[in-house]
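INPUT
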Amino acid sequence: MTALSRKPLFLMLAIVASLAASPARAQSAVADGQKLAFDRGKGNCLTCHVIKGGDLPGTIGPELKDLKAKYPDRNELTAIIFDETKRNPQTMMPPFGRNRILTEQEISAIVDFLQTL
Amino acid sequence: MKARSSILLGSLSAALVAFALTSARVVAADKIDPVADAKAFQNFFFQKFPTVKHEDFVNGPYSMNEDMKRQWQEKEEFPPYEFALDAGKEMFATPFKNGKTYADCFPNGGIGIRQNYPYFDEKEGKVVTLELALNRCREANGEAPYSYVKDEMASLTAYMAFTSRGKPMDIKIPDDPRALAAFENGKRYFYTRRGQMNFSCASCHVQSPGERIRAEILAPALGILNAMPIYRSEWSGMGTTSRRFVTCNSQTRAVPLDPQADEYRDVEYFLSYVANGLPISGPGARP
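OUTPUT
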């Protein structure tokens, strides 16, 4: 199998998985996402961002709020967390996905959480 | 923490970041030109913080925030590094087993010379920092070297900085291609992103001085070594320049180098040279 023919299969699996998610699981993804975002050993997003419900935020990035309005497509948020240097090569924000600080699943849970802000 | 009392304005900080991003790299030329680099480096900070007095940059985070500056000035009445100064002074005066002292290893008996370190040693072809020179002095006199990251080294450098307070940093780059290469190498290390977090030293100390990461206010890179060594409450003790470099690397999940590795020596050379003219303020005290 070539790498090319593998990709659509992976995408289909991802879609199937997301269709299967129940509302209860979505709820727990938001809670997981918040935990991951606040955890110093994981997202540690509070180092740089004010986020509702989080203590001792830093001031390097913008406050994270109204993100659903600003980025209606969740893929945009995923891309920012995966590797913001793509949009802005000079950014301070670590490339959480590219450098494997967070897994795809963890990023997805954080995006669920961000969409509630 | 007290720093919490300052109000956060996300959009304001975003604007500051956006401003900083346009000039993340503040050195001048393509060819190696330390004079032009130092000028561009200093001007970047002078323009970014027009209200900060030039000689104040050497006070790290305190130059960036009036509230903190006041707290610090009160602290200076009973400086937490006092014990290290006393210890350093005594160590300096106490002879080695062979009867010699540190004073025998340094120009002017080691007093009032902090501003000349690091220097480029043309015989060795490398940068020599004050910490390195102190350990070489010990070894030349038959004593075991001290750890670069522990209290003894901090006490010795604290005392030597204290006797040099107010003297303008005065680093020379001799007309030697190896000295220019060392400067350039230090500059490259300083601006190169590394580690899982993908930060360079400049990400924090050029792009974001005055900003907070969690509760800590980031010090500006200009004059950042003039206050070393520093007392930090977080360490409940003193830290040498070596300790701070290693800590900044490992806290951002980058692999730290060995203290006094060539590249750290070169970074120290670069950062000290671009601070020429700014006063020695060490030892410092930090929250």
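end of record. Chain B has ten helices and seven strands.
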